[in-house]
Amino acid sequence: MKEFLFGLRLLFGAGRGNRIRFFLMAVGGSIGVCCLALVLTIPAILDAHDGRAAARQPVTSAKGSADGTLVLQRNDAYGSQSFTRVFIARGSQGTKSAPPGLSELPSPGEVFVSPRVHDLLREAPAVKALLPGREAGVIRPAGLAHPDELYAYIGTDRTRIADGGRTLKGFGYSYAPFPAVEPSTLTDVRFALATLVLLPLGIFLSVCARLSAASRMRRLAALRLLGLSIKGTQRVNAAETVAAALLGAVLGLGEYWLLNQVMSRAGLPGLRWYPGDGALSATTIAVCLIGCPALAWFVGRKSARDATANPLAVRRTVVPRPPSKWGGLLLVAGLGIVCAYCATGLMGRPASSVGLNALLVVAGVVLTGLGLVLTLPLLSYVLASRLARSTQSLTLNLAMRRNEAEPGSTMRVVTGLVLLVYAASLAQGVLIQLEQVTRPSGPVQDYSLPLSGLSKQQQRDLAGVSGVRTHAVMMNSWVDLNADQPEAAFASSATALVATCAQLDRMTRRSEGCVDGRVMRLVDPNSSLGSDLKPGTSFRFRIDGGKDKNLNVTLPSERIVYSGYSASAVGNAVLLVPPSALPAEASPRDAELLLTSSSTPGQVRGVLDGIAAVVPIAEIELVGLNVQGLEQISVVETLLGLGMIMGLVIGVAAFLVSVTDRAVERRAQVTAVTLIGARARTMRAVQCAQIVLPLSLGLILALVTGKLAESSYLITGGGTIRWDLAGVPLLTLAAAGVVATAAMGSLPLVGRRIDPELIRRD
């Protein structure tokens, strides 16, 4: 304890520079702890979302008492959001318990809505048609998954929901029917966040714990030479590192509390939560307050080993030993696993992510990242020694000799940026894999709306919604259910697409043989639909608004051969009817309006919001996609984007802290070289070369190993995309930007003021 207190006295009494270093260690640690707390709290936010959604789910039974309470639940789309309406008909018997967020069940004519629906009723009065009754109150937060949820409880009569209603037994499921993120997808997201944030975070906290390592080692060596024991010297060192880490942990938790208050109220794209959902748990506080100081103690103990074991070598600045080669074993082991899975993809027999393969892929990715970090000092040492021996440039010789003497300091400067590029490549792979699972495989998305509820003006407005590529009408032929043989009538039914040839081209991959103004047969070689229909067969389509009540269409022999998308409504049609064939001002009775747009999630959300602006209460069917899946894509993209931002903050913070500390540590050497005649321009070039060359080497390795790790992940994922060549230019451009930023950041580190006293200072 005496040594620990002595270390604190040295900390606050060793001058302004020492106090500034302590402040930098604490601030740097606080940034890392804030990011760590955010990563650890994300699962709790999602669990709170799913827990409230599960607690309000109606528990029903098909059989019940004649006077039991009935419930009917409807999940519809309002724009790009899911709108849930729960119709409740109170009975004289059975349960009368209210769902979370309400004090009692709604009576007939009463409507309880979420705050977002309450605001929506004022913004879009047409939504009132979805909520028959008067607004009697607002649902409390306990009954909502998130603050922006569209949810409503509607009290009604038993006669109105007797056909589809079920007897209510209570509320509360053990699981959420529509989780914020599917469990399998959440596993991938956790893996991505661990790679994006936790791996660079560990390096960053280690960097903060080793600030001004050379000065501290000389001071510890002096104490050791004065007779202090090895353990006592390590306790003195721990006083500074542990105190800075503990103060940084407390500051970081405070920063996270403020960040949670702001972000929970402002929200992120696709993700909202209540401030209590993101509250710090006891586990998170314990990890931050115990784990971070423990890491600082471990790093400080390891860094002080040389000063305590051989203090004379530290005081006399003996040339250090070359870096250890053991770190390269991790890189070789990780690349061995990664390349093995890449080889299975090249041979056409991709390995699956089942069983042991799932663990091996993760192990290969983590080992490659750790090996890349631990191998950088050795690679920097080898590069520096070879260039220093072969170059004739004074600038390059000075830069490489310094890197050769201190390869560990180079690692602390460039590691964060190298890991950022490596993690960015993996994030690309995770996004590709998730999009293949959650998105339609085709490049287009179709939307189907009942035509009967749309006026002519609304149809024109929907066709002009931003993002809509084309539109058409899909109508079904009339079937006489009272016929002697209704089975035969159904067999002779058909679906027709009312569109021009240009509209058909925009809704399919390709089409051949189309002639405008003529009824033609649609044939997809990959589908057997309509293959049993004979030319000359007549179909009757019922029409509203024209002189004739029916439109008879005969199946022609002229064909349009087309190739459709995997998830498209066009695949249900066997006839192409030109719009001119319909009577003026007439509208098919059993028909839907089809809209087509790009299938990118952002485009789909934009089109859905545009549809809601035109017809708020329309029933929208997304062909091959559901709104819950679209919401999950948005949440996953937000989480990965948040991880990328945190990784960027950590990488840039590690670079800035390390470069600043490096400049302060080398003031004496820079002053000495300047006094013997080196110009400021030369010294700036030296500083730039010391950072840019090892950083470029590390980024090249990060690009290669990152793409290999990404490919192994995609191959075992079972998707159609295994080699993400499209992401190479983007990552290369990002790496070039990192090098340019690092070069610019190193230029101001050579100060103009020369203080010869620095040469004599210890």
Provide the descriptors you would attach to this structure in a database record.
762 residues; alpha+beta; 23 helices; single chain; 7-stranded mixed sheet
Describe this structure in words.
- The protein has 762 residues and is of the alpha+beta class.
- The strands form 3 sheets. Strands 11-15-12-16-10-9-18-8-19 form a 9-stranded mixed beta sheet. Strands 1-7-2-3-6-4-5 form a 7-stranded mixed beta sheet.
Strand content: 5-15%
Mean of residue pLDDT values = 76
Are there runs of 5+ residues with pLDDT below 50, and where?
none
Distance between the termini: 27 Å
What general outline do the C-alpha atoms trace? elongated
Please tell me how large the radius of gyration is.
34 Å
Give the total of beta strands: 19
Number of helices: 23
Kindly name the structural category.
Answer: alpha+beta
Strand order of the largest sheet: 11-15-12-16-10-9-18-8-19
